[in-house]
Design goal:
Blueprint (H helix, E strand, L loop, with lengths): L8 H11 L5 H8 L9 E4 L5 E5 L2 E5 L18 E5 L10 H8 L4 E5 L10 E5 L5 E3 L6 E7 L9 E7 L2 E5 L8 H9 L2 E7 L4 E2 L15 H11 L1 E7 L9 E2 L4 H12 L2 E2 L7 E3 L1
Parallel strand pairs: 3-4, 4-5, 5-6, 10-11, 11-13, 13-15
Antiparallel strand pairs: 1-2, 1-16, 2-3, 7-8, 8-9, 9-10, 12-14
Helix pairs in contact: 1-2, 1-4, 4-5, 5-6
Length: 279
């Protein structure tokens, strides 16, 4: 049977405190305990770190970018209302021209209020940390919360908690390990799926050098993050595109993830680009 999150009084209170807002217990529960509807939701893996979720009238693109040369991914949707979320404004996570083509000029981009984003003709909607973004606002088929993340090169970055049709998902961009995983897991977990980067990337570009410290979660760190988040299944993202000597990745990332996850008792689901989950 599909499960969906039913928060305890303690977890609701924790989320309200972390958000820095005054919430009634009833209003917090209505956000965090969304019951499944009779309609089907779907999630499609896009290239690199991107995913697309569809439910009801809404489709949301998360860290969706234009496919590279030789790549093929269908990012189209006929849903009436289109939205995008970005973890941060790096070019491999935010492609405003592609989003404009995909969503049209009525699409809405949600981003954390501290992120500096390109002002080309997208409709921008900044969101404070821990605060809900309703998609669409009138129906809330999909609800997302920006939560803390840590960028390996010092830029503003968030992860996104997504509630959709009774499932709880977290998408973690290309974060590295940080202590707020524990807070997120307590306030919003458990998660059905955690989309986690695993390539432990380092780059030699401009003022940044290869220094032996990963700027992105390694496979083993991704499993540790999943444990703190209370995630049932890891779906790895953000790996498989090394460009030495400028951009280095961890070796055997997928195999190492499976090994560490098996030890921790966490499932791993490898999703090919274009593959879809439905519930």
């Amino acid at each position: 049977m599909d499960r969906f999150f039913r928060p305890s009084r303690r977890s609701v209170f924790t989320g309200a405190v972390l958000a820095g807002t005054v919430m009634t217990l009833g209003s917090a529960r209505s956000l965090l305990a969304q019951s499944p509807s009779t309609s089907i939701a779907s999630l499609r893996r896009l290239n690199w770190a991107g995913i697309m979720i569809e439910h009801g009238d809404a489709v949301v693109y998360i860290d969706a970018i234009r496919p590279g040369e030789g790549e093929s991914v269908d990012a189209s949707s006929d849903r009436r209302v289109k939205y995008a979320l970005i973890s941060h404004a790096h070019g491999d996570h935010y492609d405003p021209a592609f989003l404009l083509e995909t969503m049209g000029d009525r699409g809405v981009l949600f981003h954390h209020e501290d992120s500096v984003v390109d002002q080309r003709p997208l409709r921008l909607n900044p969101v404070a940390m821990w605060q809900p973004a309703f998609m669409p606002r009138s129906g809330a088929d999909i609800v997302a919360f920006p939560v803390p993340a840590s960028d390996g090169y010092g830029d503003s970055q968030v992860s996104w908690v997504i509630q959709c049709n009774g499932k709880r998902i977290i998408h973690c961009g290309d974060t590295l390990w940080h202590g707020r995983f524990w807070d997120i897991g307590q306030a919003y977990g458990p998660f059905d799926y955690a989309f986690l980067p695993i390539n432990g990337a380092q780059q030699d570009l401009g003022r940044f050098e290869i220094v032996g410290a990963p700027g992105v979660l390694t496979p083993e760190q991704a499993v540790s993050a999943a444990q703190a988040l209370r995630a049932e299944t890891i779906v790895p993202i953000h790996y498989g595109n090394p460009m030495p000597p400028v951009y280095l990745e961890e070796d055997d990332a997928e195999a190492r993830l499976r090994s560490a996850a098996e030890t921790a008792g966490i499932a791993v689901r490898i999703m090919a680009v274009g593959e879809t989950l439905s519930w």
